[in-house]
Amino acid sequence: MAALLFAVVAVAASLPSTNAFVASTSRKGVVLTSSAADAYSHIISSTTNPALPSPNSSRRQHRITTPLAATAATTDFSSLTPTSKDECDVLVIGSGPAARAIATLLASPINKSANGDTSSSSPDILLADANYDNRWFPNYGVWQDEWESIRTMFSTFNQPLNNECIERTWEVTDCFFGGSFDIPVQERMRLDRPYCRVDRDALRRTLSPKDEVETKFAGEGSAKYRVTRANHISRATSVNVYSPSGSILHDEFGSTILLQSKNGEITQVRAKLIVDCSGHESSIVLKDDRCKSIPPGFQIAYGFLVKVDESSIPDANFVGPYYKEAMTLFDYRTDHFVENSEEEYKANKAPTFMYAMPLDSNRIFFEETSLVARPALSFQECKERCMTRLKHLGITVIDVEEEEYCYIPMGGPLPAKDQRVVGFGGAAAMVHPSTGYHLCRAMMGAGNVAKAIRDELQGSSWNPDRAAARAYDAIWSPSNIAQRNFAVFGGEFLMKQNVVGLRGFFDGFFKLPLPLWGGFLAGWPGLPNNDRHETWWARLVYGLTFVSKLPVSVALDMLGSIAAYCITEGVPLPQSVTPLLGLPDGYEYKEKPTTVGDVAAKAEARKMIAESAVEEIVPVYFTEEDEVLVV
User: Fold this and answer.
1) Higher pLDDT, 37 or 584
2) How far apart are the C-alpha atoms of 16 and 505, rounded to whole Å?
């Protein structure tokens, strides 16, 4: 019975990951945009889509990003002679939300109050990205209470996040899970929790230095970091070893790195520490391959910002079934497919849902999303399903302003230990492994990481290995890793569900008290309601409560999945819901030993040899300083 209870708890805990997907939309920008959360480089396609109405070509934008931002402008490394040199306290690589957030907080003034000194100083922070001037194109959505908690944290660094950073707020959030478990197809589940759309341009300006942006509102351009428009040219081949040779070198005081601009010029930068925010597939932050881990799943979505025809709509308060004063987080219905068709079969087996943000007038952002899958669902499949759904709902698109292709790796291994380059954001696998949330997690996480690094910079003795370890531990403490392991199972469970299972899962998930499901979607220290998930006991209570809300078939599937997962993956899941197995190993700094061998034995040998009556010269030498005996 105890085993069954544990299984239920574990399963339940992982389940809420489904809803988390919504978060994925909020951090979506991180996924596909280069200057977005992880400084991806943008590829702009001029191809028009024959399936869409002919929009004004001057306004049409196709956006997709690939993890190229941190690579060199050229692959010709025959000449690596620097044309210029620079130095800083911390070098931040990337220019998306994660990079600019950590750079902004690191560079904020440090007040000095000792001995009556009221002056302030700031660490010298240099941010590097050849694509720094690119706009952010992802669409970010956040829960209002999570955003307010981030604003509060930023204020402790004297950094503003003004109201202008939010473009639109919906006081309620809607979901549609009809079509299974006797839930009517038209039934709407309303969540009394406000949701916001981030103004990506205003946020970008706010997290930028004044001389790098044209400010529009008070508080923008307040960041104090410097900018260089260049990328690194390195690839890690093992921990702290890089190719091409000499492109990154570490020593006891810091690191030297070569950066290359788009015109090919090489700059040599000397930094006490390097923080890499170049994305999920960073080439200089290694993943931990010394312990067993599950490969990542992928969230894929096709979205577009459009104007719709409202000339003959019956109710101006709605766009099809979507209420204009609500943000629609999930629409998992499949009644828009022909019954028993191949399309319906594929949609049932590999589900997608509609995410809808009504903006002003007849403008609305639609996005058809695959929550998490391995291998990833195709963008074309998402796009075709989106068009089929809108046609069925009687929604006619008359203009397309922009398109978005969202690609988000979820889960996967954590960064390797003992590496000197600090990964942050996607490079540190900070994306929620069962929901895709990232933006709020990265911005909140930037506070603890900045504090850890700043404390080391102000310390009496600088140790870059200790600083890197403290920064990683601020991201992935043992307790945070345990919480992540709980969510990783959730992502795995969601990947195996068909559309019926997901409807039942989410319908039960949102019937939980808001602090329970809200805390699971956040899943990061400092965000609202995370206290409901950050201890083994809290996760156990959550899991048991959640299972009680699920349809019987989904609950039984969870129990079976828990048992199978524990057999195949071992300790991580049970460790996350019981104190019996302790906590996972973290990234705490461990001082290197200063002595070699048995010092007492060597000292005794030295003394006895000195006192020996034997006068014959013997080839024995001692080093007093390090107590090493050499024969």
Assistant:
1) 584
2) 8
Report the Cα 186 to chain-centroid distance in Å: 34
> How would you label 224-248 residue by residue, b for 16+ Cβ within 10 Å and e otherwise?
bbbbbbbbbbbebeeebebeeeebb
* Chain-centroid distance, C-alpha 395: 33
Distance between CA atoms of residues 335 and 247, nearest Å: 56
Residue type, 31: V
DSSP string, 198-220: E-HHHHHHHTSBGGGS---STTT
Average pLDDT, the chain: 86
**Which amino acid belongs to residue 423?**
G
What is the residue-wise DSSP string for 499-556?
Answer: HHHHHHHHHHHTTS-HHHHHHHHH-STTSTTGGGTSSHHHHHHHHHHHHHHS-HHHHH
Can you give 444-455 as a three-state secondary structure string? HHHHHHHHHHHH
Buried b (16+ CB within 10 A) or exposed e, 515-541: ebbbbbbbbbbbbbbbebbbbbebbbb
Per-residue model confidence as pLDDT tens digits over 445-498: 999 999 999 999 999 899 999 999 999 999 999 999 999 999 999 999 999 999
Model confidence over 27-80: pLDDT tens digits?
Answer: 333 333 322 333 322 222 333 343 444 333 333 444 443 333 344 444 445 457
Separation between Cα atoms, residue 365 and residue 516, nearest integer Å: 29
Amino acid at 327: M
pLDDT for residue 250: 97
Beta-carbon count within 10 A of 39 CB: 40
Query: Bridge partners of 300?
Result: 370, 407
Task: Count the Cβ atoms, other than its own, within 10 Å of residue 118.
Answer: 7
Q: Which amino acid is at 150?
A: I
Closest-CA residue to 90 (of 270, 229, 251, 267): 270
Q: Cβ contacts of residue 571 below 8 Å, gap of 6+?
A: 581
Q: Which helix (H) or strand (E) holds 372?
A: strand 363-373
Has residue 284 got a pLDDT over 80? yes
Which amino acid is it at 336? H
Whether 289 shows a pLDDT value over 90: the answer reads: no
CA distance 370 to 407: 10
For residue 543, how far is the Cα from the chain centroid? 24
Contact 459, 524 (CB under 8 A): no
**DSSP single-letter state for residue 247:** S
Tokens of 72: 């060199």
- pTM reported for the whole predicted model: 0.85
